[in-house]
Design brief:
CATH topology: Anthranilate synthase
Order of helices and strands: EHEEEEEHEHEEEEEHHEEHEHEEEEH
Strand content: 35-45%
Length: 322
């Protein structure tokens, strides 16, 4: 693995030469790696319109799926610490996550093969990710971000209306949109919210979900390719999976979560020599000493209810399938 400086400089150099590459960066932006786009010995990936798959992978169904989440009391201890900091004014939105060991009849590569998502990544023997959330796209000097905040079971009565009208979810989404708009203003001009709180339906091996997103765009300078690394590292960590204000919130996350996120909630991306597409590494299963561990969570505000947030964290422990 490379350190942040090495990754940033290499991205700038490859971008300047318009050489395609693939990258992963961990949550805290401290380490990661860069691969050529054809490397499929260490990493497999699939994004809209592109992939490095050289064979059809055998698909098996996840017939055994037994999550073993942290107890509600353990979750509550971290939640209460977050609320204490919120009421002290240290943070006003924090994405609180926890690890969930999972028993499954599939290995990481088999989960990768059967999952269906906008972005799929397999770092062999390390983790699999099937992310629905774009981090940033860059096309013809236009940068776009698609923060995702708000999840509800789609089979509930009037679920789409409920999630859109929910005051807690609305406040949380507004905060993230403001945060991402400010982030993009660090690297782009004429930043605007093009679409606000639109719904997407996700099909999973457990249940269908509605998720709420927005689209924010801005204009980059013409020479942006030679500064790709600089641009991306200015935007890290992703606001939707950290919180606001970022620096202090990340400090609180370390205290409250008491585990290593690692590459979970980091970013993955592909630069094709001209444009860039990237995602937030959520919906994430890690191989930790032979045990599959699913990492999930959600945004906490002063309006949050601990039991509801705990339930939302568990709803996100799924494999998206066709």
């Amino acid at each position: 693995m490379k350190n942040a400086f090495e990754i940033q400089q290499q991205m700038n150099e490859l971008g300047h030469r318009r050489e395609p590459f693939v990258f992963i960066i961990d949550f805290e932006g401290k380490k990661g790696n860069i691969y050529n786009t054809q490397n499929n010995h260490e990493i497999l990936w699939q994004i809209p319109g592109k992939n490095n798959l050289n064979k059809k992978l055998q698909q098996k169904k996840p017939e055994i799926w037994k999550p073993q989440p942290v107890s509600f009391n353990k979750y509550l201890a971290g939640f209460n610490l977050v609320q204490q900091h919120i009421h002290n004014g240290d943070t006003y939105l924090l994405n609180f996550t926890q690890p969930t060991p999972v028993q499954c009849n599939l290995n990481l590569e088999e989960i990768f093969a059967v999952s269906s998502a906008r972005y799929k990544i397999l770092l062999k023997n390390k983790f699999v990710c099937f992310s629905p959330e774009t981090f940033v796209k860059i096309e013809n000097s236009k940068i776009s971000s698609f923060p995702m905040k708000g999840t509800i079971q789609a089979n509930l009565e009037n679920s789409a209306t409920k999630i859109i009208k929910d005051s807690k979810e609305t406040a949380e989404h507004n905060t993230i949109v403001d945060l991402i708009r400010n982030d993009l203003s660090l690297v782009a001009e004429d930043v605007t919210v093009e679409k606000f709180r639109y719904l997407e339906r996700l099909k999973t091996n457990q249940q269908d979900l509605w998720q709420v997103s927005s689209k924010i765009t801005g204009d980059l300078p013409e020479n942006y390719r030679g500064n790709l690394g600089d641009i991306l590292f200015k935007l890290l960590p992703a606001g939707s999976i950290s919180g606001a204000p970022k620096r202090k919130t990340v400090e609180i996350i370390r205290k409250a979560e008491k585990y290593e996120r690692g590459f979970y909630t980091g970013i993955f991306g592909v630069f094709d020599g001209k444009n860039l597409d990237s995602c937030v590494l959520i919906r994430f299963i890690e191989n930790i000493d032979g045990q599959l561990v699913y990492k999930s969570g959600g945004g906490i505000t002063f309006k949050s209810d601990a039991k509801n947030e705990y339930d939302e964290m568990l709803k996100k422990v799924y494999v998206p399938v066709d």
